[in-house]
Specification:
heterodimer; A: mainly alpha; MetI-like fold; 2 domains; 12 helices; B: mainly alpha; globular
Chain lengths: ~290, ~325
């Protein structure tokens, strides 16, 4: 194979190096497993989410694999249906939050002066208050629709991503090809999106993964505190809260969702760790 | 002089951040809902009670004058009265506040030294089985949300596998946390598990950098004993970046405690906030959010100043 004639493919090489790591493969398998459960689960559920099956908190019921929950609903069915909304909201809020944060970070790095300080000081102030509290305040006052949950997560994602991307982009902005693009008169928009942004993609990938893990955790935590758009619907976070008081009688209603959220966050965490190791060059020289 | 200027600038930012946070809290709680009185009282509210609440909240005035009224009252120590209990809000500052501080201080006092030793040892035994097991475990703990870790601990140590500790903290409304030492072990353990990964990872990275530095090699070449190299030269120099992360962690405990307190029914500020949110007790929500925000801002401020003080390198680069 003639490697010399190959076009440089930094992005694909990056993904390839990440995929070569064992932890990335394990992470993908675990995350995939949970995603498939959440996607296919609702079609396999023997009961509906709110159907009364038998006496509440019973364990040995024919047809109900893991017994019934605090309302006499089927634990297994609710488990199969409970992951979809967390994954969906997590993906949407991560996508919006990372895109918004990346754009603001790159713009702040490229345009210096007052716009830069407005963006960065706003980030500082939003970060100066725990994200979960912004979310609690917003949702308790405005009600809980899916859009507000997404907004609450986006608010805490944007400044954190923005700061990291700003740090990476400041170094890129100083490079010669950016000065060259400025010199030949390319528009600022074009420079920001075509010259600077593509050069921080590996940082962006690391951040996307990290933020997805935290968004999942945040959304599940909000559901645990009772903030979901559908209070009676099946949701892993809500299930933990509903069933934990009867945990001695019926542990499955708590254990199954806790296990699923733990696996999901560990899976995405493993992928993210592989990304950040490759991106930071921690595994330099190891080509396994 | 540079340091003094830095401290003053940092203080000014902290104060500015607090004012901005207070404005945002106020805007979200009292400015954004179309009618805060309706949000608080719900659908069954009578016109009379709505009108009474509107006058208590001064909803007839401009938003800015409502905010100013609230802020100046808080600054004077006049925190208002809870809607649900009719008690003065300052009563939350008593036992509940010290309970939350207890949770925060004990879990930091356990997790930070432990994480420093763990991270330092992982750096020394880099790429060994201990190192990879440690990094995997910290990754797992860092990824999981607090309520999942806490529930996991409850399942293993309180209800299903072992029955060593109680699953919830049984305390009277105003009892102090240390009157139930067995009950506070699991909440503290949850926060400790959430804290350790960040500090130990930073310590590991920082220690590796120090161990690869010229001055450590120099000390070794001079024949300084390995023990002295580590304790006198490597460990203290690795602490700089860790300081910042440790303090950020204390701040994390402030936020994470809201979930952990709720999970274990721990009578602190965080569980008071979630209760107030459930009963839409607006003055309590506003005050407790501001209180938690203040603790958060102050911890970060102290961390920034302390980091600069313990890192001579940073002192010279201050503008």
């Amino acid at each position: 194979m003639n490697k010399v004639s190959r076009e440089p493919r930094p992005f694909l090489d990056f993904i390839g190096t990440v995929w070569a790591m064992r932890r990335a493969k394990i992470g993908v398998v675990i995350t995939g497993l949970i995603c498939v459960t959440a996607a296919v689960g609702p079609h396999l559920a023997p009961f509906t989410a709110t159907e009364f099956v038998d006496m509440p908190n019973s364990l040995h019921i024919s047809g109900a694999l893991f017994g019934t929950d605090y309302m006499g609903q089927d634990v297994w069915s609710r488990f199969l249906m409970g992951g979809g909304s967390i994954l969906f909201l997590g993906a949407v809020s991560t996508a919006i939050g990372v895109l918004g944060g990346a754009m603001l970070g790159v713009v702040a790095a490229y345009v210096k002066g007052s716009l830069n300080s407005i963006i960065m000081r706003t980030f500082d102030i939003v970060i100066a208050f725990p994200g979960i509290l912004w979310a609690l305040l917003l949702l308790s006052m405005m009600g809980t629709s899916n859009w507000l949950i997404i907004l609450a997560i986006v608010i805490s994602t944007v400044p954190r991503v923005g700061r990291i991307i700003y740090g990476a982009a400041v170094a890129v902005v100083e490079k010669d090809f950016v000065s060259a693009a400025t010199a030949i008169g390319e528009s600022r928009m074009r420079i920001v999106f075509r010259e600077v942004l593509p050069n921080v993609t590996s940082t962006l990938l690391v951040e996307t993964n990290l933020r997805f893990t935290y968004s999942i955790g945040g959304i599940a935590s909000l559901a645990f505190l009772g903030f979901t758009s559908d209070p009676t619907g099946a949701n892993w976070g809500t299930m933990v809260q509903e069933n934990s008081s009867a945990i001695i009688l019926q542990p499955w209603g708590t254990i199954l969702p806790v296990f699923a959220i733990a696996l999901l966050t560990i899976g995405t965490g493993l992928i993210g760790d592989a990304f950040s190791r490759v991106s930071a060059g921690i595994d330099r020289g190891r080509n396994d | 002089m540079r340091i003094l200027k830095f401290v003053l600038r940092r203080l000014a930012f902290g104060l500015g951040a607090l004012i901005a946070i207070s404005a945002a809290i106020f805007l979200v709680t009292q400015g954004l809902p179309a009618d805060p009185a309706k949000t608080i009282l719900g659908r069954d509210a009578t016109p009379e009670s709505l009108a009474a609440l509107r006058s208590v909240l001064h909803l007839d005035r401009s938003l800015f004058s409502q905010y100013w009224e609230w802020l100046t009252n808080v600054a004077r120590g006049n925190f208002g009265t809870s809607f649900t209990t009719q008690m003065p809000i300052s009563s939350y500052l008593g036992e509940r506040f010290s309970n939350s501080l207890f949770l925060m201080i004990v879990s930091s006092a356990i997790s930070i030294p432990f994480a420093l030793l763990l991270g330092g040892y992982m750096a020394l035994r880099r790429d060994s089985l201990f190192d990879s097991a440690g990094s995997f475990t910290s990754l797992v703990f860092a990824a999981m949300p607090e309520f999942v870790m806490g529930t996991g601990l409850i399942v293993v140590f309180a209800t299903t596998v072992f029955h060593w500790f109680p699953a919830v903290v049984y305390l009277e409304e105003d009892a102090s946390a240390w009157s139930d030492p067995k009950g506070v072990i699991l909440p503290i353990a949850t926060l400790v598990m959430g804290c350790i990964p960040y500090v130990s990872r930073t310590m590991r990275a920082s220690m590796i950098e120090v161990l690869e530095s010229d001055y450590i090699e120099m000390a070794r070449l001079k024949g300084v004993s390995e023990r002295k190299v580590l304790l006198r030269h490597a460990f203290p120099n690795a602490l700089g970046p860790v300081f910042q992360v440790s303090a950020l962690n204390i701040a994390y405990v402030v936020g994470g405690a809201v979930i952990v307190e709720r999970l274990f029914n721990f009578p602190g500020v965080g569980s008071a906030l979630t209760e107030a949110i459930r009963s839409r007790d607006l003055p309590v929500i506003q005050f407790l959010s501001l209180l938690i925000g203040s603790v958060y801002v102050i911890t970060n401020l102290v961390a920034d100043v302390a980091t600069v003080l313990v890192t001579p390198r940073l002192r010279t680069t201050l503008p």
